[in-house]
Amino acid sequence: KDDATFKASLFQNKIQLIFCIIIRIMIINKPKFATKNVMPLLIFLISTFSIGNLLISWFVIIPYHEDPNKFEINNHQFTDNDVQKVNVQGSTDGLHLGSIDALSDGHSSGSNSKGKTLSKSHDNLKSNDAKSDNTSKHEQKSKDKTSIENKATNGKKNHVGKEGEVDCQCPHTCDWVKREYSGAGVRCGDRLTFVMNKHKKSEMEACRELTQGERMFCPNECNPDKCKDMKPNFENNDLDEPDEAFHRYEGVAIVTKVHSSDMLGSLKLNFCLLNAAYNRFVNYDIVVFTTMPWTEAEIEELQEVVPDSKLVVAIDGPTLQEHLADMTEDELIEIRERCDVKPDENLTWFHHCSEDREVTNVAYSWQAQFRSYYIWTHPALKQYKYMIWNDSDSLATQTWKRDPMKAMVDNDLTIMFDHYPAGKSRKFVEQELKKMMLSAYNRTFCRAALDDEDGVLKGVKCNRESDMPTIGQIHGFHHITNLDVYREPKHQDFLRQMTSVKKFSRVWDDQLAVTIPGIFGEPGKAWDHRLHNFTLMLRHNGKYDGHDFYSTRKYKNWWMKEDSGARNWTAGRVMCEKLIMTSRAGKW
Question: Which residues contact 500 (CB under 8 A, 6 or more apart)?
Fold first, then answer.
């Protein structure tokens, strides 16, 4: 009926389920409890029925309410009381089967193929709806479809927007965002298609019907009688611009890393949003480091998202077998124990390893070590001087108003970062850390401090020779680094020592690796973004820029909110909206 009623019912069901499970356990553990009198036996029967009922609610009704587009509803008509007979079938990959347009997602589950497009025409939808029917029903549906097309708008074809869905002849207002509107718990675009196909309504009749009455399935922006006087949701030539003109600098690359092409869908969304926010003005090259090889088709699919930028997908290093072959016997014994590898097992990238109360898999630990030392001299970055690092799950939300690269170049900076601190060096490694500092730099710092006045990160000397270092770390999800500085011998010496302590370790990771050269390099060259008036508003791990919490966790849900997302970011809407609405990555 509404969200409040649903939540109340859900809470009641949870309590009922807990009560039923307790009764079941009591009866199973103490059979005499059920045989002493009739009442416990009745409770037993009722609880058995209730649990079955609740499981149906849990796995069918609740998922449908939370995301009706994951299900396909086949029913022939509604009664006057809105009582309907429904047949609920799970859809493929969670995509909108009720939608007419072709959807694509390079990160589809349940399929080993990448970059394939899932297309559903009217004929395909008819076939899908009737896949369990006999041949005569197929023929009848084909006749129904012909009848609908002839009837729609007095014999005229329905008006289909550029995304492939009907737009109620309101292309300037009834766009993707409005068709995603879930009135009465069902997506507007799906309901329009349903009414036209099942009730043989014309496009205009369906649009008028679904934008009126108490149960509005679609907003007024899709009402053909009202939309004509409404302002467009955006103008294609009115993309938001930065406060100052951006200049393209030479030797700059946007860089990220993934384990494999399984992250293709996430990268498509990431680069599309970053392009809308920044790179469309400068078209910097993009380098993606990967541990597992990609196919040419996968690389081409990612290139389609950023057609104006040079894209390089580079293998980050040796295979796991080659890594293990270079390790000593003691190192192999240590990592097998740390990763709980059974005697009859081989170590894999996805074995989880425990270290200092932290558990990470081998693949994640390798990316940390790669970013700490090996990345700076990797052949794929040899031609570049500056690296704009952005994690694959760090998502842009607005057009950048000022260019941080201008500050980097004009001030010859070592590093600019979005957030500090993100944790600190571990206490149990402080002695080793001090030795490495002395070896590489012939001096030590006991801590790092961010000056709120000048926005510069500085090293703080130890008060006594016996003091041990505890260094706050620059957050690793986004930063801009001067590669030439990090390639200097003294910094490379420190980073080599740091990553040589233990193979596949998160104790010595990339956040400490970018911080130490930043504070041991030339003073005044490590700048904080926000303290120098660069507010990028990147969404990552529950915060904007590592500072401000956001309440709507999933990007797609944030995008749909009235006070954010598509309403406030025109460039993001024009360039990436369809990808957000159809990609699995948009569900973050």
Answer: none
